[in-house]
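Case study 2.
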Amino acid sequence: MHLQRENIMCEKCIIADHPQDESLSILQDLLNQGFTDVVWIYNSYKCPKCRSLDGKKWKLKDFIANLKYEAPIFEKSHIGCKCLIAVKNINGEERIVDFTGLKQSKHAFKPVEKVKKFIDNINPFKKK
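Prediction:
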């Protein structure tokens, strides 16, 4: 079975040569810590599927429920997705997660708006 550009996943493809979505355990930990909401942050300047998800919100428990492949980010978008999600708690704290897990960069705990501004500034396709 070959992967197409749409959101089609097969067990062999996930195990083989493609990057693994390792976000599930981090998201489960965040849920257990009282984080409740997820916001999608578009970070794939060429992908219309990801662009359509930008700003979309979920309850964290719903975002990780009923997964077929235990790959919450890839299942919402596509294998190899470089987008981020902001996970928030009721106190307004945020954690930024991508398919590799919790981001530990200098941008990891900044509000979503600052992360989006950073991404926009490095976008090579942005019109000046």
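Confidence is low (pLDDT under 50) at residues 1-15, 105-109.
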